Amino acid sequence: MYLYLIQHAEAKSDEEDPQRPLNDVGLANIKKTAAFLKRGNIKIDKIYHSSKLRTVQTANALENELNTPGGTAKIDGLLPLDNPALWTDRLVEMDGSVAIVGHLPHLSKLTSMLLCNAAETGLITFKMACVLCLKRNEQDLWLIQWMITPEIC
């Protein structure tokens, strides 16, 4: 199984818009990231995102570029302060290739839980509109495959 962990793209501030949609830079960056994934022939079966508008827009931009067969889905357990253990349990039941579009610190904690079973280790520094690819091997261990940021796309 491949797991793509994606921090949402840059959003407007609370002062600009309390709904916090993506700003112009964020939209351009996630489109650039999605185009890079498409050029790399990355296939994603399903994209999950939180209820926040910035993750919905990030997931939709990815889905539009990658033509994800399972589309996108809003799901609980992906808000910034949610417990990552919920997702470590969910992922046991999943296969194929799944993307999670989320927030910090949740994504950082989930990554640490998957890689070393300790949520607070802070192994990876996420950037907005970046993608971290993990692969689950035959022994059910998660391994880092690669990471991209909009700056290198």
Task: Please characterize this protein's 3D structure.
With 153 residues, the protein is of the alpha/beta class. It has helices at residues 24-39, 53-66, 85-92, 106-116; strands at residues 2-7, 46-49, 72-74, 97-102, 131-136, 142-148. It has a single domain (2-152), classed as Rossmann fold, CATH 3.40.50.1240. The protein has four helices and six strands. It has a six-stranded mixed β-sheet with strand order 3-2-4-1-5-6, with helices on both faces. β5 and β6 (142-148) form a beta hairpin. The longest helix has 16 residues, at 24-39.
- Beta-strand level of the residues, as a percent range? 15-25%
Count the DSSP helices: 4
Average of pLDDT: 96
Largest sheet: 6 strands, mixed
- What's the CATH topology name? Rossmann fold
- Uncertain runs with pLDDT below 50, 5 residues or more? none
Query: Strands of the biggest beta sheet: in what spatial order?
Result: 3-2-4-1-5-6
For the record, the CATH class is Alpha Beta
Q: How many domains, in number, for the residues?
A: 1
If you compute it from the alpha carbons, what radius of gyration comes out, rounded to the nearest whole angstrom? Answer: 14 Å
Shape estimate: globular
Helix content: 25-40%
- CATH H-tier superfamily: Phosphoglycerate mutase-like
SSE sequence, one letter per element: EHEHEHEHEE
Query: Structural class, from helix and strand content?
Result: alpha/beta
Helix and strand topology:
Layout: E1 2-7, H1 24-39, E2 46-49, H2 53-66, E3 72-74, H3 85-92, E4 97-102, H4 106-116, E5 131-136, E6 142-148
Parallel strand pairs: 1-4, 2-3, 2-4
Antiparallel strand pairs: 1-5, 5-6
Helix pairs in contact: 1-2
